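#struct-pred

JT: dropping the chains for the assembly here, can someone run the whole complex?
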Amino acid sequence: MMEAMEEANPVPELRPTCGELFMSFLAIGMQGFGGVLPWARRMLVEQRGWLTEAEFIEVLSLAQFLPGPNIVNVSIIVGRRFNGVAGATSASIGLMFMPFLIVLALAALYARYAGISAVRGATDGVSAAATGLIIAMAVKMSYPLRHSPWMIAIGVATFLVIALARVPLLWVLAAMAPISVGIAWFKR
Amino acid sequence: MFPPVLIDIAQHFAVLSFLAIGGVNALIPEIHLRAVEIEHWVNDAQFAQAFAISQAAPGPNMLIVSVLGWQIAGFFGGLVATVAICAPSSVLTYFVAHVWDRFRTAPLRRAIQHGLAPVTVGLILASGYILARTADHTVAAYAITIATVVLVLTTRLHPLLYLAAGGALGALGYIGQ
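RK: done, full complex below.
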């Protein structure tokens, strides 16, 4: 009876092949100017329907909390979910393939034309603006933390030891991460 | 059989892969420390160029690593650096994703997320500071950085506009040396 019902009413399952994973992440990689994550959400949730909104948030929070480039982690988790090791490999190589070639082509072009002062000037200008984008991102990310004195203290302390004291990141993480997670645990 | 510099690149970036909590933007001070201050693979100017080129290309912002690898040891340097920064963390992610369902709602998971948030914000702010110190050499460059920060926080313009405007101002010679 149960089996008959399941057969009569199959769960519609979207299960992309390795080729589809590769092509979709190839497109995500090529679209992502100034941050890939918004494009990844658009593709995976809106265009392909492989993940629901809630599933995407869950995948993203896992990707962010693990080390490594966030979007690469997203490709690994999504690829694995549908096709295991082959899926994770297809999705992550698809993601990195074109951006890698494009950025090296840009670097080679730059090396060739760096003698032209307009090219050097343009690079300096892009770099100055991109630096501003990163500082603004940090400020925006700090908004949700501003009502919590201990979070402000941890953020400021991390900034000071990395930016001014130039302590290697390994030591900073080994000290700050357990302290901060410990405080979060007792404040929960 | 394998050029020693490629092995050095692989080792440094594989370690960086495990340290990249909060994405590669949070990792920029450490990449600068290793590539410029410890190994002397590239100088400040090259580091700033790698950053600018990676920001001007589509794709993940970790591409600064690909350009640095390329600057150090050509195409294979870029390939080794890119694979080295992705592979170790990807293997870890694969296995953690496997057991993730078991601690889906665990309070420890929420404590870890809350606890890492301020550390990540501090790291990214430090990245902005190091980049400004490394890349901005003139008052005009600092002005572009500060104007971008203010405009991003007060308007909803597309991020590409800032990169295009900065590039245009620089190409017209407004930044100077």
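JT: nice. Chain A has two domains: 1-116, 143-188. Residues 70-113 of chain A form the longest helix (44 residues).
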